[in-house]
Amino acid sequence: MLIVPPALGSQAGTRVRADFRARREPAAMTRRSTFPILKIRWAKKRAEVAARIDRSAEPVGGTLDPTPVLQSFACLQAKPGWKLHISWSYGGRRGHMVSMENRQMMQAGAQRPAAPFTLVVSDVHGYPELLENALRSSGFREGSDRLVFAGDFLDRGSLARECLQRLDELGAETLIGNHDQAIALGYWIGEQQEASKVFREPLLERLRKRRLNLVTSVDGVLISHAGLTRVFAADFDELGRDPARVAARLNDEYHAAVGRQLEHGRELPQPRILDEWSPQRLRVDDADVGPGRLLDAVEQIAGHTTPTVFRRWTEAEFRAAGLHAIDPGTYGLGPGDHPRHYRYAVIQGGAVRVEAGTMEAGTREAGTREQTR
């Protein structure tokens, strides 16, 4: 049972964060018993209340049911804009962040599930922490929300296998990145690791079964590893400016081109689909690209180039042109590093937002949010 001090009710309308910390009970208690401390924070003030979570709320399969805790916060009667974040740690495991806004609470105080969203992550490059940080920060809910991975799970970091396994566990829709393609087609690119070559057959199998595509579309938003330019404008117009139809055509073209490459070799990369204008190789910040040459009249989400290395244009200029950049950046990391930062996009209710920041001590986070559309 969770008891919220009455004094908290006077803080309605404030932004609240909650952080569970599992701690061992006295020796007389069972090993599985926990005594979490719930920390509630707002501007320059802090209150702490002890909360015992009974066994019915213990993690099952790595997931803790947050409903009883969320319902306990109904007494806050927060104003619009209030948001609750909860995370937990238990037996060395951590649960994902849970987000709930005031408008998603019923009058009686019971929890109404938040609308499902699509989380888009890219370029984890062998660092599973970059995926986990995004899951935790976004409040991703397995079985409810959708995950799209926009390419490049290998090279640089040493845990590419763990990255791929986690994506499979989450049922992610996966797109191919330039590093993934280089391994699949058997050619070298910069920063390629010898250890990554073990993924060639698994990647080819996914390509054969079309479980690995070039482009996808979610709620009218085109998602790819690197972005689409006006090279594809004629297709876009011919297909009625329908992002889903464009994605389907380009995926057909891509799989046909990959088949030819595997059969005849890579001497002549298929123009626009496998060359430097491909949605898995394009560098949007190159002098001959930029915001002005992106496919217009459609929102896009792409990784491949982190905004911190843009030289000719700013992230704001690309965003104004409809491109949301989500590469979290792995430059300068060593193979054994454990990054705490995150960068991802969320598609929800017809809107795209990019969130970026750093997971601080425990599960707290500091970051920025940009909302468009």
How do the strands and helices of this protein lay out in sequence?
Blueprint: E1 17-21, E2 37-42, E3 45-50, H1 67-72, E4 83-86, E5 89-90, E6 93-94, E7 98-101, E8 118-121, H2 128-138, E9 146-149, H3 160-169, E10 173-175, H4 178-185, H5 200-208, E11 212-213, E12 215-218, E13 221-224, H6 233-238, H7 243-264, E14 299-302, H8 315-320, E15 323-325, E16 341-348, E17 351-359, E18 365-372
Helix pairs in contact: 4-5
CATH class of the largest domain, please? Alpha Beta
Number of helices: 8
Kindly report the name of the CATH homologous superfamily of the largest domain: Metallo-dependent phosphatases
**Strand residues, percent:** 15-25%
- Please summarize the sheet with the most strands: 7 strands, mixed
And the CATH topology of the largest domain?
A: Purple Acid Phosphatase, chain A, domain 2
In whole angstroms, how far apart are the ends?
A: 41 Å
Low-confidence sequence ranges: 1-112
CATH architecture of the largest domain: 4-Layer Sandwich
What would you report as the Rg, rounded to the nearest angstrom? 23 Å
- Portion of residues within helices: 10-25%
Structurally, the number of domains stands at 2
* Secondary-structure content class: alpha/beta
The strand line-up of the biggest sheet is 11-10-9-8-16-17-18
Task: Describe the protein.
This protein is α/β, with parallel strands linked by helices and 373 residues long. It folds into 2 domains: 6-104, no CATH class; 118-372, Metallo-dependent phosphatases (Purple Acid Phosphatase, chain A, domain 2, 4-Layer Sandwich), CATH 3.60.21. Helix content is 21%, strand content 22%. It contains 8 helices and 18 strands. A 7-stranded mixed sheet has the order 11-10-9-8-16-17-18. Strands 12-13-14-15 form a 4-stranded mixed sheet. α4 (178-185) packs across α5. The chain is globular.
